[in-house]
Request: fold
Amino acid sequence: MPPREDTNGAGGASSASPSEPAPPPPQQVKGKGKKKDEKKDDDLSEEDQALKEKLELYVVRAQDSDPGVQKLALESMRQEIRTATSSMTSVPKPLKFLRPHYGTLKSYFETMPDSDLKKYMADILSVLALTMSVEGERESLKYRMMGSEGDIGSWGHEYVRNLAGEIAQEFQRLQDDDVPMDKSLMELVQQIVSFHMKHNAEPEAVDLLMEVENLDLLVEHVDATNYKRTCLYLTSSSKYLPAPDDMLALKIAYEIYLKFGDLASALRIALLLDNKLQYVKQVYTATDDLLLKKQFSYIVARHGLSMDIDDEITADENDKEVLQEIVYNTKLSEGYLTLARDIEVMEPKSPEDIYKVTCLFF
Amino acid sequence: MQRRLAMVSGRSPLSRNKCRPAPAQPGRSSEEDQALKEKLELYVCARAGLRSRRPEVGAREHEKYMADILSGISLNNVRVEGERESLKYRMMGSEGDIGSWGHEYVRNLAGEIAQEFQRLQHNAEPEAVDLLMEFGDLASALRIALLLDNKLQYVKQVYTATDDLLLKKQFSYIVARHVHLIDGRGATSSSLDSARQNLAATFVNAFVNAGFGQDKLMTAPSDSSGGSSGNWLFKNKEHGKASAAASLGMILLWDSDSGLAQLDKYLHSNDTHVVAGALLGIGIVSCGVKNDCDPAFALISEYIGRDESIIRIGAILGLGIAYAGSQKDELQAQLSAILADSQTPLEVLVFTAISLGLVFIGSCNEEIAQSIIFVLMDRSEAELAEPIIRLLPVALGLLYLGKQESVEATAEVSKTFDEKIRKYCDVTLMSLAYAGTGNVLKVQKLLGICSEHLEKGETHQGPAVLGIALISMAEELGADMAVRSLERLLQYGEQNIRRAVPLALGMLCISNPKVNVMDTLSRLSHDADAEVSMAAIISLGLIGAGTNNARIAGMLRNLSSYYYKEAGHLFCVRIAQGLAHLGKGLLTLSPYHSDRFLLSPIALAGLVTVLHACLDMKSIILGKYHYMLYILVLAMQPRMLLTVDQDLKPLSVPVRVGQAVDVVGQAGKPKTITGFQTHSTPVLLAAGERAELATEKYVPLSPFLEGFVILKKNPEYHDED
Reply:
């Protein structure tokens, strides 16, 4: 494909800038767009030309008075868009060829009576808005909300990402106007989160939920395969979040770890939370495995947390004593000396040995 | 000497006179050269014969003449290094114009004189001096004269050898410089300040043998009744003895049974410093190790009300270290009472506040905060000017360590303080409250403070610089950016900022000797400003703490000879050497653990307190509060992975240890370490390293392989055979 076309296509989303004469405002799409298309026709391969004509036909038919014809046209259009698998770097061809008709379809959509067909049309407009919508207009989201609410993933990854971005913007606007988020929007968020979580895109799910300040929803979407990555992202990003959000992210990670029984990891986070003793105890009581509790005690001891092993943690007096000893670091010296003997550095060193040392060990 | 000869042009007659090389390369000589050669050979015939005939030559003039020639020839002859024949014959020769033999001859002679001089030691100095004077090289003669025993006589001789006043002035400069040097050397060897050197050795010994339970100074088995421990103790003076006694606690670190038993005997000493040190030592031994019987509290608490300040300090600081982070109620009651007593000496007061801060780290305890604030408001202006007063805001800040906005109420009150301490307190409180949070806004604010131009000797920019490090150390990216910002401050900042920068760098890379920071500190360790260079030296120790890093060890060794006559610097170098070999390389000072995720507040508190003390190195660390260095014990931890079995007995298994890889946001199961090596546990882990089991036979109970990790048999594993 010639690079000229490529840039034209990719730049489409932001083509509203006045300095650029080429992309016409939606209303005039027909006249100007055609002129341009003609110029381009020569560059298109036969295959592309056929696709282009086919799509143009669908656009005309979609505005047909016969609902049957309309439906067929829309379905075909939808089919074309969905099957277009394209690389990440260029706009899929059906989308590109449909771009000049976005305005036409949009204005026709306004005249349509409420019906399944209208929803169908909204779906397609929502996808087209991916490349056409003017920055900040959030048209993709707008049409999505009017659409049939079908499987979001069927339109591809990029569509979902774009939608997520628009949701974040919308949420910001709602916040500024002090309007609560409505239920349908929340459902859409859920849909997107679940899509991302199923497709190895945990960070994007987490990001979206953080944007809409509803991180708790995450817990129900994680599963055994992705909870580790999700928590890793949560804990790592917590370092970069401002004050209350960082603790929230950690708390969610803590809950997820607890949910999947990764108690040692949960403990690690508990030690970072405010009110840590309460959370640490919760981790202890989540298991009956004494050995695991011993491991917890080693971690608590390393952190230097002063904690009394009480009846809640274990009722057995002997066990209590063993755990308390570990928390008290009673065996730290022994372990350290084990290491020293293993590395063979028990021999005492005098200050002179250090002053003169060239390479003391290893 | 050889190099000088190489400079001789190949065309000089002397070089042609070589007996051996000439026939070896006949083709190379031009005809002219050949002729010259033959002529000379005729003159000389057999040089050996000439030489042996010499004694028989009757006339003295002839003899001298011959000696001159021999002297000239021997310049070039294949000669045994160190024979100094040229000089020998010159001395026997006619003593004529030395220059007539050419430049190279004189140089050679001078070289031989130098050799001769070394040999002569002190018996033939007149000749050497005479010779140089003969050359008219009076300045060199003076130099040699200055080295001689009755130098005054020879120096005078040099002076009288010329009438040139200008030259005499130059001589006077040389003499003046030399006298200075002599004094300098003399000062070190006598004031060698053996007390300070021993004090340094005490710390080095304590740091290096920390936790091993044995050393060569304090615990070495006693051959006689006295025991060497007692001996070493009394090689220290006054408060030095306190640090020496306390060092026993460091050597026996974490082994409270044996430690308390060994320290107990010093409690009965008549020497208040020894008792104080023993009390501190008890605290150090018990650091991080607790016991239901609370032996440390039982042993120490009766001493906090004693009359002698030093004993009180030892007891109070000991309690602070032993019970750091414990929030022990009894301590609040007892220590707050000391704070409230207006009769309490200032230094006791400061250490009481520090201990309260340590015991109640991050507790946001209002009552304690109030009592420290009261001290800061109540004490006179003169007292507020004392150097250690800077530790009071630190104590206050420790109560809010990492607690972010909880500090605000207290910070508001601090705005009403005397202006001497107000800003210092404000900045310190903020930097401690946000320590380890990575809060960029606060870092920006602190950077803003550092860009101010101070008018009247305010000191709050030091803690601001430290604050940048404390806050941004939270994650790698921020830490790297902070390092860069600090480099800027070094270039543009004022002196009080530059003094804190090395310490801030030390904090950012603690026990993590990054090469770029190492280089910066190495450069600063030679800075003209003593406080800057001392801080840089200490920081070299901090970044290399417990790593045995060979490069840092080399730098410190060089610094020890560079600063051999600067007692203060040398002390810092020694401390840094001790730190670099902390626990013989088995310990770390890093407050971060568990894959650099968790920040131990106790460790951080220890580091912060010591760093603030280092902001005024001269008055605190080099003064009588050197034992504050022991507060570092709060951050000391073995940098190990020790795997244990279900009975908590050590279990050796193969593990892969490699550089940690950041896998955040990566799909699938990416490798978490790179460039790994396989070892058997127990194994040391360096900064930025991660370990993973290299066997399927066991399952670790903690996903993060650090410190003590319990292994369970893998039920799904079946031995191959």
About this structure: Chain B touches chain A through 80 residues (CB under 8 Å). Residues 1-27, 180-192, 223-228 of chain B have pLDDT under 50 and may be disordered. The radius of gyration of chain B is 35 Å. DSSP finds 36 helices and eleven strands in chain B.
